[in-house]
Here is the input.
Amino acid sequence: MRRAWVEVDLGAVRRNAAALRRAAGVPLVAMVKADGYGVGAVAVARALVGAPDTIWALGVATLVEARALREAGIDARILCCTPLVPEELHDAKSLGIRPSLHRAQDIRAWNAMKGGAWHLAIDTGMSRAGIRWDTASSLRECLAEHTPEGVFTHFHSAEAPDGTRVSQDARFDEALRALRSVLPPTVLEHRDNSAGISSRLAAGKSSPGSLARPGIGLYGAFVADRFPLEQVVHLRARVIDVRTVLAGETVSYGGTYTATREQRIATLAVGHGDGYRRAFSNCGRVLLNGTHVPVAGVVSMDMTMIDVTDAPCEVGDVATLIGREGDECLTTDAATASGSLSPYELLVGLALRAPRVFLEDAHGDR
Here is the structure.
């Protein structure tokens, strides 16, 4: 590759899925929304489907995402976890999608068109979608006529040791008790995201119910050191210029970086137009020829400067801004921590411009 690119280790995705499946103790709805968190939904889906004991379904947020999977020939189960507007239900049926529903009129409309399997969404504290746990009984009459295949909720802070996951678990259980007599005994209950799986693992427990829905963990980013996962994404860029900057001279927009001595500054052909966020300005780290070097100045749209005074560097060398170089690794979590970013934001942004290179097993069994 001549400029900047993202290597995606599909072998690592599969191993992360297997690790999450073992920890959860139940099959997974693998979330591939937002183009697989920026990693590449179609490639990830192809890497994961075909292992029914591990992957029960793929999870999306929109019908556009579902259509892309179908057009790529992926015929696996797809669960849309975001509410659809009524006008989208016919398209959901034509695509063979399992919608998440919680309004009685939508449930009746879906069943009137013989739409097929669907999942009931229950809000236990996110306050964004689903019927409130304490009003779930209002759906009893509707559910007695139109039974869901599954029922689920979503945690807002499962990784936090503040008891909110326990509280949301209790609310979900309360809703299930209120609906138990109208739910089929085979209903698929699911609640755990990546953080939920990890937090239960720390307590020596597996995921309750029938399924778990990991997202960010599949892609090697996570919020808990207790459950290490493999790095999936490797952002690389070439050095396109090397220059000497004298003491007192500045680098990049705003002059926020000032050389304290005579320094060598290298320019990388990558910037926030490629998803390497402006937040890494003056605080990011880059791997270059086995050496950790700092970002110098503001990250611009197309270029990023680094201080290579103490590192071997020539035009054409390849730097790693996220991921592994040899035995060294700048994990997604470590990178985002340096820029006070969310790993979700960073990964999704990598789909902006830099081409993705999909490797079946880039780094062995690390």
User: Anything to note?
Assistant: Residues 190 and 208 are 7 Å apart (CA to CA). The domain at 233-359 is CATH 2.40.37.10 (Lyase, Ornithine Decarboxylase; Chain A, domain 1).
